[in-house]
Amino acid sequence: MAVRVDLNISLDGFATTTDQTPENPFGEDWGRLTGAYAATRTFRERVLQDTSGGGTTGVDDDYARAYFAELGAEIMGAGMFGLHDHPDDPDWRGWWGDEPPFHVPVFVLTRTAPRPSIAMAGGTTFHFLAASPAEALERATDAAGGKDVRIGGGPTVVRDFLKAGLVDQLHVAIAPILLGRGIRLWDDLRGWESGYDVEVAGAESGTTHVTFRR
Amino acid sequence: MAVRVDLNISLDGFATTTDQTPENPFGEDWGRLTGAYAATRTFRERVLQDTSGGGTTGVDDDYARAYFAELGAEIMGAGMFGLHDHPDDPDWRGWWGDEPPFHVPVFVLTRTAPRPSIAMAGGTTFHFLAASPAEALERATDAAGGKDVRIGGGPTVVRDFLKAGLVDQLHVAIAPILLGRGIRLWDDLRGWESGYDVEVAGAESGTTHVTFRR
User: Fold this and answer.
1) Could you tell me which CATH class the domain A3-26+70-213 is placed in?
2) Which of B60, B96, B101, B91 is nearest to B80 (CA)?
3) What are the residue boundaries of the Bacterial bifunctional deaminase-reductase C-terminal domain, all occurrences included (chains A, B) (predicted)?
4) Is B210's CB within 8 Å of A209's CB?
């Protein structure tokens, strides 16, 4: 059992994009940041339920498979679940549709009013917690049944867990683009890598996969 | 003939280190930032004049060989030559010893008092210019005799050339360390990669080599 992070970041270290508009709610940059991952066969099968056999099958797909393997629970921030955009909607169920791609218990960190858990199709249940990183991790570890716990994001939440020393494996997929603005993953983490082994792999897409493990 | 940049940066994008002391003038971090390059057989042969055959021979060494290949001239900032640390010393000849590892004309950008050129052993001649990036590049291109011109550093000078659209090939060797402070290479370069092809390679050392070419 390991506590894992998997994030897509730009070469200049940004894990969020800033060019969202009402007409283009994801923005152009999000597609560029996550495009190599979204192009993999594994993403198509696991997230898009597209079993036609399309998608890339190289280094990026190897990491996409690892992304989904052995996961027992996930922790995410309120922003990633969409609570910041839907603060007053008690019926908000996230933006992943009726069958979210997690298929495990997901713990959403929020300090706003308590919400009842939401069971979705496909095995995903969203639970809402006002808890410290360590407390949330204890809850998620119990729920994971011996499998891995992922800290899913956003980057500020990930950084809280990294700084608290709670992460066993950090995998970043670095897109070869310069976003210039957004939230930086790496801020205030000087020397964090101490005690970790590192493995790097370049993908055909131009994406670099860097993995720290302890 | 291409205008090239080769830089060592940390995973969080810093191209300089900050832990220099009088007792340790390079600091510990500089060794961590450049260690994989300094361990290569090519570095040992070309910079240390160590022909004993030691040093690494993998991916890092492939890039070290390319670093020295086809170079006709180099441009660097005053700080990289040491003029900021030796402003009043007319006899300062840089910190690379009697036979610097460049073996080509080197153009040092400085706005302080003009200095005569300095011819060193091994083919390196230092010239001092008060010039814009484009003007300096014109001088260096003339001197390079059809070979490549490198913008050697520091990162602020490199960024000036990148922003001016003067660089054909940018190679960064990314060390898997988080320095947390220093001068960032990537600041204010949003979208710079447009129009470039990119190639990435992971080295055994944990270094990632990212190369943009147009």
Assistant:
1) alpha beta
2) B96
3) 3-188
4) no
Q: What percent of chain A stands above pLDDT 70?
A: 100
Question: How many beta carbons lie within 10 A of that of residue A24, not counting itself?
Answer: 11
Q: Of A86, A115, A80, which Cα lies nearest the Cα of A100?
A: A80
- Write down the H helix ranges in B98-195: 133-144, 155-163
Q: What is residue A120's predicted lDDT score, i.e. its pLDDT?
A: 96
Of A13, A201, A202, the CB nearest to B12: A13
Task: Tell how far CA A212 is from the center of its chain.
Answer: 16
Please list every residue in chain B whose beta carbon sits closer than 8 Å to the beta carbon of residue A201. 202
CATH of B3-213, one of 3.60.130.10, 3.40.430.10, 3.20.20.70, 3.40.50.300: 3.40.430.10
**Look-up: residue for tokens 């792999």?**
A201
Query: Which one of A181, A192, A206 has the shortest CB-CB distance to B178?
Result: A192
CA dist list (Å): A115 to A76, A135, A153? 15, 18, 20
Side chain identity, residue A137: L
Q: Rounded to a whole number, what is the distance in Å from the CA of B16 to chain A's nearest CA?
A: 14
Q: Divide the 214 residues of chain B into consecutive groups of 10 and give the mean pLDDT of each group.
A: 97 96 89 96 91 94 94 96 87 91 95 90 96 97 98 96 98 98 96 97 97 98
Task: State whether A186 and B13 contact (CB < 8 Å).
Answer: yes
Q: Touching check for A209 and chain B: CB below 8 Å?
A: yes
CA distances from B48 to A134, B6, B44, B69, B99 (A): 49, 19, 5, 17, 10
A204 touches chain B (CB under 8 A): no
Yes or no, beta carbons of B203 and A207 under 8 Å apart: no
Domain assignments of chain B as residue spans, ordered by start: 3-213
Yes or no, beta carbons of B208 and A190 under 8 Å apart: no
Mutate to test the interface with B, among A7, A9, A12, A33 (most CBs of B within 10 A): A12
Closest CA–CA distance from residue B172 to any residue of chain A (Å): 11
Q: How far is CA B47 from the centre of its chain?
A: 13
A-B interface: how many C-beta pairs under 8 angstroms? 85
User: What confidence score (pLDDT) does residue A113 get?
Assistant: 77
A125 CA: distance to closest CA in chain B (Å): 35
d(CA A107, CA A125) in angstroms, rounded, equals 8
This model of the complex carries an ipTM of 0.92
